[in-house]
Amino acid sequence: MMTRRHWVTAGLLAPAGLWLFFFLVLPFLAILVFSLGERAEAGGYQPALTLANYLNLPARAAAFWNTLILAPAGALACLVIAYPAAWFLALRVSEKRRLLLVSLIIVPFWTSMLVRTYAWMYLLGARGLPQLAEVIGIEGLRLINTPGAVLLGIVYGYLPLMIMPIYVSLEKLDRRLLEASADLGARPVSTFLTVTLPLSLPGVMTGLALVSILLLGEYLIPQMLGGGKVYFIGNALVDLFLQSRNWPFGSAIAVSLVVAVVIVLGLAMRIAWKVAGTRQMDLM
């Protein structure tokens, strides 16, 4: 029997649930139906029931490989840079300076990603760093339209999204645990591996999941810094839906990407939470 408390809970969850149903579940079901259809003669969707679009996925293997290599590489690069920055902000900076530094991390989000990417196009282009390199005797340096340029743009664009979840986890860390570890004779490295890192692992996984999911659908950075030579799945979807108008094949790619993301992130989160729980039990 539904109590008043249950009705209140259902009422509070109803708006978010309806939003997710109409703007997430229904569109995904529509894409799933499209993926089983055929391309009409004039482009678009023609009703059918076939798996030919899924069998044709290897035709876009380059986009899948670029995404599955550069997206995790970009997320890991962000993590390598973000963790020391978040650790310094949370554990080594006074509260007065902390607010200022956190604000400086967030400030780039006030500027459009398009503008910031254009700035990197200039810096990596022929009149930017390569021209400066020629002055010191390095000729023929090519930075733009390379995987390295795309990776650099990814790290620059998504680094704040990695720093903030880790910073929040470290800020909530009980300092007495660090003091107890030091009092018991543990070295700083041991304290970090057995106390700081396990307790901040939820923030690490949140940052990795957030950045990875966004990168898997990235379009702007590969398009501008990759110059069409470094092709992501997002670029392939734009091409299939807007240019070649092959909606069923594009839908099959989108469905495959969603399934892969759910499986990989589910396994990663399960492993991370299991490790975090084991480490916390050891601490107790």
UniProtKB/TrEMBL annotation:
<dbReference type="Pfam" id="PF00528">
    <property type="entry name" value="BPD_transp_1"/>
</dbReference>
<keyword id="KW-1133">Transmembrane helix</keyword>
<feature type="transmembrane region" description="Helical">
    <location>
        <begin position="191"/>
        <end position="216"/>
    </location>
</feature>
<feature type="transmembrane region" description="Helical">
    <location>
        <begin position="63"/>
        <end position="87"/>
    </location>
</feature>
<feature type="transmembrane region" description="Helical">
    <location>
        <begin position="149"/>
        <end position="170"/>
    </location>
</feature>
<keyword id="KW-0812">Transmembrane</keyword>
<feature type="transmembrane region" description="Helical">
    <location>
        <begin position="99"/>
        <end position="123"/>
    </location>
</feature>
<keyword id="KW-0472">Membrane</keyword>
<comment type="similarity">
    <text>Belongs to the binding-protein-dependent transport system permease family. CysTW subfamily.</text>
</comment>
<feature type="domain" description="ABC transmembrane type-1">
    <location>
        <begin position="83"/>
        <end position="267"/>
    </location>
</feature>
<dbReference type="InterPro" id="IPR035906">
    <property type="entry name" value="MetI-like_sf"/>
</dbReference>
<dbReference type="InterPro" id="IPR000515">
    <property type="entry name" value="MetI-like"/>
</dbReference>
<keyword id="KW-1003">Cell membrane</keyword>
<protein>
    <submittedName>
        <fullName>ABC transporter permease subunit</fullName>
    </submittedName>
</protein>
<feature type="transmembrane region" description="Helical">
    <location>
        <begin position="249"/>
        <end position="273"/>
    </location>
</feature>
<dbReference type="GO" id="GO:0055085">
    <property type="term" value="P:transmembrane transport"/>
</dbReference>
<feature type="transmembrane region" description="Helical">
    <location>
        <begin position="12"/>
        <end position="36"/>
    </location>
</feature>
<keyword id="KW-0813">Transport</keyword>
<dbReference type="GO" id="GO:0005886">
    <property type="term" value="C:plasma membrane"/>
</dbReference>
